[in-house]
Specification:
- By secondary structure, this protein is α/β, with parallel strands linked by helices.
- It is about 20% helix and about 25% strand.
- The protein is built from three helices and seven strands.
- It has a seven-stranded mixed beta sheet, sandwiched between helices.
- It is globular, with a radius of gyration of 15 Å.
Length: about 160
């Protein structure tokens, strides 16, 4: 039972894996039960490595369906800069630096709900991003984020020009 005083929202985000995806897209299969079987709860394809520009839209979308997001964990080395907090929709969201790798973002709702999203590199092709997102949201997926990116041909580093 939640002691935050906020009502639990039970709607889940729609599964948009088979729709056209573009940078800025988040596809999630968020299970709010304690017996999650998959390694990841979804995927996010930011347009850039600018946290202040990218994260508010993700947090707003997740908040609409899950209720308030309180914390986000990111690997500081993977982003241009990492603030300690962001103001999103008039709510403070704390940003934590974790060495989780640039291929994962950790999202916390309330005191106990934690969600792990695959981060598709901004330079990924739509085909690679779509394939990686589809794998990440499979309920029985046991493949870690880094391996999904390798399997789908999406490098972590931007292509050299």
């Amino acid at each position: 039972m939640s002691d935050s005083g906020s009502p639990r929202v039970t709607r889940l985000l729609p599964d948009a894996v088979h729709q056209a995806v573009k940078p800025g897209t988040a596809v999630v299969r968020l299970q709010t039960t304690h017996d999650r079987r998959g390694v990841l709860d979804g995927a996010w394809w930011p347009c850039s490595r600018d946290v202040a520009a990218e994260l508010p839209a993700l947090i707003s979308a997740l908040t609409e369906y899950l209720g308030p997001v309180t914390r986000v964990g990111l690997d500081a080395a993977a982003w241009d800069t990492l603030p300690t907090r962001l103001l999103v929709d008039d709510r403070v969201v704390h940003i934590d630096s974790f060495p989780v790798g640039d291929d994962t973002v950790l999202v916390t709702r309330g005191d106990q709900d934690h969600f792990s999203l695959l981060v598709i590199p901004p330079h990924a092709t739509p085909e690679a991003a779509r394939t990686a997102m589809a794998e990440a949201v499979r309920a029985d997926n046991l493949t870690r984020a880094e391996q999904i990116l390798i399997n789908t041909g999406t490098d972590r580093a931007a292509p050299k020009t």
